Amino acid sequence: MAISYRAGPVAVGQSLGPDEFLAIRTAQSETPLGALGPCGACDLGPLAFCANMGGGAISSLARVQCTLHYEAQDTLFREGDDGLAVYTLISGAVKVYKLMPDGRRQITGFFFRGDMFGFCLDAHYAYTAETITPVMACRLPMALLEKLSRTAPEVQYRIMRRMTAKLANFHEHVLLLGRKTARERVASFLVSLSDRAHRRGDPPSPLALPMGRTDIADHIGLTVETVSRSITRLKRDGFVDLPSPSLVAIRDLRTLREIADGAAPEAA
User: Fold this and answer.
1) Would you kindly state where each structural domain of the chain is located, as residue ranges?
2) Which residue in 120, 240, 251, 255 is deepest, having the highest Cβ count within 10 Å?
3) Is the backbone of residue 146 left (phi > 0), alpha (psi -120 to 50) or beta?
């Protein structure tokens, strides 16, 4: 059965002033955060785009940075909108996708804490961004980043690193869609989430799956039924456990990685 999608209206987002942002972050921390500066309440650490930048660049970013709060299923921007800003997730999860004229959808990526998205090459967004969960995001004007990248090599270097990483992920996803079996696609998806969790300092297992099975299917090019069957089979074979529909515990990451790479034989 084909499912047709339509993006919702773009959400402005609730702008959090310094006091509101600090109040939220202080409530989530045992340490008062008010004296730590304009970005002191951000707990991204080395994941932040501005981590360990020089004072001049940080001051320029802090003057125009805006922290926004979005509810689940809010649309941050739509494909074709003017590319005015890039976003770094402080908390929550976002999916990005492209729509065909008949409403069919291809999810091109999922973003989590510390991920940066919204870069565009022709002054317009190439995809739609929609929140999966409530989200807190740091918004930076694209015009300022372009200006700083011409005068601050460290800004240019960090933008290039993120763009290079996205290009590498794109090649991996093309391989997944073009050559991998359903079992290999699901295994690749789970291994990728586990590796990303590890890189951002979160436990590689169990994995939270804030996205639904339909979102996973639209990302890896399968039907919802095939995604569910493949996950159930991985569970039956002892590679994963399913404590809940939104949680996957990886029991055998090495073998799961072999399956993802096409190096493990199909079980009988």
Assistant:
1) 14-156, 180-260
2) 240
3) alpha
pLDDT tens-digit profile of 64-74? 788 899 999 99
Alpha carbon dihedral 263, 221, 118, 17, in 10-degree steps, equals -100
Q: Which residues of 78-89 are buried (b: 16+ CB within 10 A; e: fewer)?
A: beeeebebbbbb
Q: Give the DSSP H/E element, type plus range, for residue 182.
A: helix 182-199
Closest CA to 138 of 70, 54, 81, 200: 70
Run of H or E residues at 93: none
The CATH fold assigned to 14-156 is Jelly Rolls (2.60.120)
- Domain 14-156 identical in fold to domain 180-260: no
- If one looks up domain 180-260 in CATH, what number appears? 1.10.10.10
Q: Are 185 and 220 in contact (CB under 8 A)?
A: yes
pLDDT, greater one: 44 or 247: 247
**pTM to 2 decimal places:** 0.82
Per-state percent for the chain, helix, strand, coil, to nearest 5: 40, 20, 40
What is each CA distance from 202 to 44, 81, 165, 251, in whole angstroms? 12, 33, 19, 17
Neighbours of 188 (CB within 10 A): 22
Rounded Cα–Cα distance for residues 164 and 133 (Å)? 27
Tell me the residue type at 46.
P
